[in-house]
């Protein structure tokens, strides 16, 4: 879907993006992770042709970005807004028209979306008369009304209440099913772990890691096993790290230290009843921190 | 291009559909006559209700006899200055006019005492009356009867005519030209200010509500800026057009009600040479109408529309840039300065130089430099401007408009995405030079 080659962007002396390479495959949800100020928004703005890169190239479906690309992209910025004094209907028509829909296409689609969200009765209401949650729904419709093939969401869940956040998640998954590629940028890494198929991590203008979630997680497997034992019949070795202890039941986090998991299991069985034995995966946040440390030590 | 049209359409409809637009458009033509009527009414009331003010005259020369008017009565009872002052403090007199012994050729030491600061109209009245008295006295001293002089005084009026290239004569009147230049200049000034501010507010609205980021992902910032400027300009033109229609309909109706002949009708009669012969002595009104007729309205209106739009576009881009640079209207003040100053220079120049002497070199430069020309040139145009000057001025205005737009676009496209930083001129300069 998107190929980003050697992208550079600087604001004065501050580097926002350094030699960034990235491939966003067709379909699925791609997570762009990194702390605030890492360069995510700059990258997104370049993809949206809001600003221009200093050097490098962004290709969409093998072609350089152009005016034609605008119609294929839907963009929900981190800071969002609508015309407060404008009615829902007029507003949605306007946003779909400037994305390149014809007047009749626009009418048809706005109508369909209003019906889908069961908000046809808001048609003539002004945005300033709507609640925040209602306005967010309109905002989302405005973002996807032209049926973009690439949907870019910058911090999509910030500012949404839980109900609307769940609704948004549902819509995102539905769009994914329909074949839309979704590029999702956030600094809250835990929020996207379950949602994303692929991620890239950006730190201080550089990409430090990318790949599919499963692949990254197995790559960063710390080889630790989370164990629960019941009916403890002898003292545990002092080096074992006990996480919780309750009436003869203990939770442990044990490193494999080169052992196979079966060998560890065998050893554990000597201490009592093993009721759970599970490999612990690191969270994306832990991986990120690990990777940042690794890259700064390079 | 299509997208610019969409922006223009949105900006236009969003404003025209507002109730406030309807109210302002319909009421403004009524407000001016209403305000004038209120002033006239107040003035009349005041004159009627004003009590007669008695002024004690202490005349040490014995030469002056002050004639009382509707507002002021003069009493000369030969009191001393101190006694007269006492009368004022007891509020039996409004004031004291003290005329010491003086040399009539160089009168000095005339004083007025009162409890309050006298109005300029009173002082003017006193000065005028004394001047006449003294002049009469001096004429008399030289053996001339003032009445003879009064008789000799003759009213002279020079009718000015301009010669066309083919030798055709055209009656002109500087008062009419003055009025036309004055009106059109002020209209352009107001239009630029009012609608320029609307552009700025609009840009700030889009920036502060963060709509702009969504917008510029769909169209170029330049398209957005131009769409906004043109859309708001169209709102202004619509409003202006409605005003012209309303005012002309209203005045026609009013004149009809008053049983007066419509000016157009009279003008038509003037244009008819047979009727002219039938009434060889056109009155004052007729002459003014003839002057108005002599003005080339088509080119005047064309020039007005050109400078109206040119000036608006030139300044509109700057207003948009200011809006883009700041986060809130209250921050805009610091950047308004470079916009306000040339506008004010044009406005003041119109009164101080252009309307006084339309062909002076200051007037020339004011009407050539694009920043002031929209206002200043309108002051000259009804007097007739050489073709090359008009061409130069118009050409420069177009260049100026392209220049400010180019400049503004650079600030605009960076500014609209910047939040939280209060930009200074230094920052703006950096934006201008950056390629972003």
Task: Outline the structure in words.
- The complex is a heterodimer of chains A (298) and B (436).
- Chain A is of the alpha/beta class.
- Chain A has a six-stranded mixed beta sheet, sandwiched between helices.
- Chain A has helices at residues 40-47, 88-98, 103-116, 132-144, 162-177, 213-219, 261-269, 284-297, and strands at residues 2-11, 14-24, 29-33, 55-60, 63-64, 73-76, 150-154, 181-186, 198-203, 206-212, 224-230, 241-246, 249-255, 273-279.
- With 436 residues, chain B is an alpha/beta fold.
- Chain B has two domains: 52-152, D-Maltodextrin-Binding Protein, domain 2 (3-Layer(aba) Sandwich); 175-433, no CATH class.
- Chain B contains 17 helices and six strands.
- Chain B is elongated and about 90 Å long.
- Classes of the chains: A alpha/beta (298), B alpha/beta (436).
- At the A-B interface, helix 2 of A face helix 1 and helix 7 of B.
Short account of what is shown:
The complex is a heterodimer of chains A (298) and B (436). Chain A contains eight helices and 14 strands. Chain A has two domains: 2-217, Rossmann fold, CATH 3.40.50; 223-280, no CATH class.
What's the number of domains of chain B? 2
Reading the helices and strands of chain B in chain order gives HHEEHEEHHEEHHHHHHHHHHHH
Terminal CA distance of chain A reads 32 Å
Largest sheet of chain B: 4 strands, mixed
What name goes with the CATH superfamily of the largest domain in chain A? P-loop containing nucleotide triphosphate hydrolases
CATH level-3 fold name of the largest domain in chain A: Rossmann fold
Fraction of residues in H or I helices of chain B: 55-70%
CATH class annotation of the largest domain in chain A: Alpha Beta
Rg of chain A, nearest Å: 24 Å
CATH arch. level architecture of the largest domain in chain A:
3-Layer(aba) Sandwich
Distance between the termini of chain B: 23 Å
Assign a percent range to the helix content of chain A.
Answer: 25-40%
Mean pLDDT of chain A: 86
What does the largest sheet of chain A look like? 6 strands, mixed
Oligomer: heterodimer
E-strand count of chain A = 14
Number of helices of chain B: 17
Count of β-strands of chain B: 6
Strands side by side in the biggest sheet of chain B: 2-1-3-4
Number of helices of chain A: 8
The parts of chain A where pLDDT drops under 50 for at least 5 residues are none
């Amino acid at each position: 879907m998107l190929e980003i080659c050697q992208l550079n962007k600087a604001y004065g002396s501050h580097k926002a993006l350094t030699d960034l390479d990235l491939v966003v495959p067709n379909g699925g949800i791609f997570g762009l992770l990194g702390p605030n100020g890492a360069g995510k928004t700059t990258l997104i703005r370049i993809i949206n042709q809001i600003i221009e890169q200093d050097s490098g190239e962004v290709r969409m479906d093998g072609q350089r970005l152009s005016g034609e690309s605008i119609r294929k992209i839907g963009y929900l910025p981190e800071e969002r807004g609508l015309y407060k004094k404008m009615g829902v209907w007029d507003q949605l028509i306007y946003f779909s028209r400037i994305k390149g829909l014809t007047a009749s296409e626009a009418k048809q689609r706005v109508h369909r979306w209003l019906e889908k969200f069961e908000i046809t009765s808001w048609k003539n209401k002004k945005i300033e008369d709507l609640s925040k949650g209602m306005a967010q729904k309109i905002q989302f419709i405005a973002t996807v009304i032209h049926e973009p093939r690439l949907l870019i969401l910058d911090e999509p869940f910030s500012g949404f209440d839980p109900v609307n956040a769940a609704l948004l998640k549902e819509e995102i998954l539905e769009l994914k099913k329909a074949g839309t590629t979704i590029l999702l940028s956030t600094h809250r890494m835990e929020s996207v772990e379950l949602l994303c198929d692929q991620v890239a991590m950006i730190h201080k203008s550089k990409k430090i890691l990318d790949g599919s979630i499963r692949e990254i997680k197995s790559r960063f497997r710390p080889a630790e096993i989370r164990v629960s034992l019941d009916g403890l019949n002898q003292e545990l070795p002092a080096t074992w790290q006990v996480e919780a202890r309750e009436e003869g039941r203990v939770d442990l986090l044990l490193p494999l230290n080169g052992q196979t998991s079966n060998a560890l299991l065998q050893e554990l069985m000597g201490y009592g009843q093993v009721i759970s034995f599970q490999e612990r995966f690191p969270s994306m946040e832990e991986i990120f921190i690990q990777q940042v440390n690794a890259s700064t030590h390079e | 291009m299509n997208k610019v049209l969409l922006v223009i359409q949105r900006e236009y409809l969003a404003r025209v559909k507002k109730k406030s637009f309807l109210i302002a458009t319909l009421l403004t033509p009524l407000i001016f006559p209403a305000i004038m009527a209120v002033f006239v009414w107040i003035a009349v009331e005041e004159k009627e209700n004003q009590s007669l003010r008695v002024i004690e005259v202490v005349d040490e020369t014995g030469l002056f006899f002050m004639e009382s008017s509707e507002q002021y009565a003069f009493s000369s009872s030969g009191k001393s200055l101190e006694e007269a002052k006492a009368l004022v403090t007891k509020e039996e007199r409004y004031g004291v006019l003290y005329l010491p012994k003086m040399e009539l050729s160089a009168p000095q030491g005339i004083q007025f005492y009162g409890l309050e600061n006298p109005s300029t109209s009173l002082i003017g009245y006193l000065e005028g009356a004394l001047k006449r008295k003294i002049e009469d006295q001096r004429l008399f001293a030289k053996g001339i009867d003032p009445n003879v002089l009064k008789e000799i005084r003759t009213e002279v009026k020079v009718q000015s005519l301009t010669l066309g290239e083919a030798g055709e004569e055209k009656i002109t009147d500087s008062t009419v030209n003055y009025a036309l230049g004055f009106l059109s200049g002020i209209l352009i000034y107001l239009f630029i200010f009012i609608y320029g501010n609307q552009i700025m507010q609009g840009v700030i609205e889009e920036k502060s509500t963060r709509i702009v980021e969504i917008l510029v992902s769909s169209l170029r910032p330049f398209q957005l800026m131009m769409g906004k400027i043109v859309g708001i300009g169209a709102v202004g033109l619509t409003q202006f057009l409605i005003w012209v229609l309303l005012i002309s309909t209203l005045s026609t109706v009013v004149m009809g009600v008053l049983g007066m002949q419509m000016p157009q009708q009279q003008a038509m009669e003037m244009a008819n040479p047979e009727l002219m012969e039938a009434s060889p002595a056109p009155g004052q009104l007729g002459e003014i109408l003839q002057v108005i007729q002599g003005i080339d309205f088509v080119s005047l209106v064309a020039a007005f529309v050109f400078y109206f739009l040119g000036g608006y576009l030139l300044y509109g881009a700057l207003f948009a840039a200011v809006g883009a640079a700041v986060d809130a209207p209250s921050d805009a003040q610091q950047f308004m300065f470079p916009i306000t100053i040339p506008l004010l220079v044009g406005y003041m120049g119109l009164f101080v130089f252009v309307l006084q002497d339309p062909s002076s070199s200051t007037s020339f430069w004011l009407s050539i430099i694009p920043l002031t020309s929209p206002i200043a040139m309108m002051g000259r145009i009804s007097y007739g401007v050489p073709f090359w000057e008009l061409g130069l001025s118009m050409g420069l205005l177009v260049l100026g408009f392209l220049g400010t737009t180019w400049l503004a676009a650079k600030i605009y496209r960076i500014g609209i995405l910047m939040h939280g930083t209060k930009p200074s001129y230094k920052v703006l300069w950096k934006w201008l030079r950056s390629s972003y």
